[in-house]
Design goal:
Length: about 450
């Protein structure tokens, strides 16, 4: 009897998603653990593995379809010994929601901003076939530092294992994936491999492996703009940030922090990191952002009134210090969480943050790694931003915007000296924290930043 392939629930709050792409064709053999589809949720585009093995007998929901309800029938898998005759008499009606693929937007007569409405889907009907959900892929194990890159792993059908971002980059650059060696887990080709191939001068090739001719000059656009379809992630970001900016009464508090001692402490911490005997690589590398996370955690423990959430009828005071850190990736923004940040050393925070950021950019975060958190940090210092304000991520009460450190003259008594200054701005929900509370927290944060020994003790 054919096995139902159902739309998986990739997070506890997921109700529907977009079936972005099928990675298997009808007739392809599928083994347990094979990546067969890409699902776009409100957080990220994630690869989904098959929990069963067989042959893909029928695709019910075509790729590019939005609003696919969780548990909706999207395809059928034929078990061993079955053929297409097993599908005779099967009717797709009533087995999957009434959906339609996304169509490319038509050019507007004038560049007018339009609000995107949420996609809608139908209900899922019953089927006599055994229902088995796809399982999200397990977290990839980190390869030893001394191991050399493995050749790309395939599933027996010459399909190279590659992340969605790396696949798109290779396609745009005309790079033949089969010629690359993957440095990711189990030989998976990742973004860094494509960037390395480009920087190394790997020639662009056609599908047959022949050098591609130089591209002709693009024709002049016939319209002065291009309408870019919004991803599910971008729609949710737009909805939540609009809601936060228009319904939450916020105020902003800004303070300058001297970070010369912090930079010196960072250098000492990194110099003291144990080295691998073979590669001589340090066990960890602490960044300024890691120290900012630690300082914020200590300040939240010192001023717990800021470590709270708005819950309509009550103010929810949190007993754990869990900090969400904004990470930008292709097409969106996500906030993985450092749990119990006040109880962890900066080396542990650095290691966790590195892993979370890598998985976030690859779209492989687990739901529990980005859902929740009591306080957020958004750092644009690496982009050279001196000062900015950030939008609160509800139901959290505050978010800290961190600018870049720069040399500035400061007055010490009757003399001017040069110091490295970092400007930070705290956005507060006035329903939870008033001005005095926010200012008290910023004073505590500034104290930990300027005297790092107090938070590293």
């Amino acid at each position: 009897m054919p096995i139902n392939i159902l739309m998986p629930a990739l997070s506890p709050t997921m109700e529907e998603g977009k079936l972005a792409k099928w990675l298997k064709k009808v007739g392809d053999k599928v083994s347990a653990g094979d990546v067969i589809a890409e699902i776009e949720t409100d957080k990220a585009t994630m690869e989904v593995e098959s929990a069963d093995e067989g042959v893909l007998g029928k695709i019910i929901v075509p790729e590019g379809t939005e609003g696919v309800k969780v548990n909706a029938l999207i395809g059928l898998l034929l078990e061993e010994g079955e053929d297409k005759k097993s599908l005779e008499g099967f009717k797709a009606e009533g087995s999957a929601p009434a959906l339609k693929p996304v169509e490319a937007p038509k050019p507007a007569p004038a560049p007018v901003a339009a609000a995107a409405s949420a996609p809608a889907g139908g209900e899922t009907g019953a089927s006599s076939a055994p229902a088995r959900q796809l399982a999200p892929p397990p977290s990839a194990a980190v390869a030893p530092a001394a191991a050399s890159p493995a050749p790309p792993r395939t599933n027996g059908h010459d399909r190279v294992f590659v992340s969605p971002l790396a696949r798109r980059m290779a396609k745009q650059a005309g790079i033949e994936l089969g010629a690359l060696k993957g440095s990711g887990p189990h030989g998976r080709i990742v973004k860094a491999d494509i960037e390395s191939a480009l920087s190394g001068g790997v020639p662009a090739t056609t599908a047959a492996g022949v050098r591609a001719p130089a591209p002709a000059a693009p024709p002049r656009p016939t319209t002065p703009y291009t309408d870019v379809p919004m991803s599910t992630v971008r729609k949710v970001i737009a909805q939540r940030m609009t809601q936060a900016h228009t319904t939450i009464p916020v105020f902003y508090l800004t303070v300058d922090c001297e970070i010369d001692r912090l930079l010196a402490a960072r250098t000492e911490i990194n110099d003291a990191a144990p080295k691998d005997k073979k590669t001589k690589e340090p066990a960890y590398k602490v960044s300024v952002n890691d120290l900012v996370i630690k300082a914020a955690a200590c300040a939240l423990r010192a001023v717990p009134a800021v470590n709270a959430q708005w819950a309509e009828s009550v103010i929810r005071q949190l007993n754990t210090v869990d900090i969400s850190v904004a990470v930008a990736y292709e097409g969106g923004l996500i906030t993985p969480i450092i749990f119990d940040a006040d109880k962890k050393g900066v080396a542990q925070i650095a290691a966790e943050m590195k892993g979370l950021a890598e998985r976030a950019r690859a779209g492989r975060l687990k739901p529990e790694e980005y859902q929740g958190g009591g306080f957020s940090i958004s750092n644009l210092g690496m982009y050279g931003m001196k000062h900015f304000t950030a939008v609160i991520n509800p139901p959290q009460a505050c978010i800290l915007a961190v600018g870049s450190g720069e040399k500035r003259p400061i007055a010490r008594g009757d003399k001017f000296e040069i110091a490295t200054i970092m400007t930070v701005t705290l956005t507060c929900d006035h329903r939870v924290a008033d001005g005095a509370t926010g200012a008290t927290w910023l004073q505590a944060f500034k104290g930990f930043i300027e005297k790092p020994a107090t938070m590293l003790a």
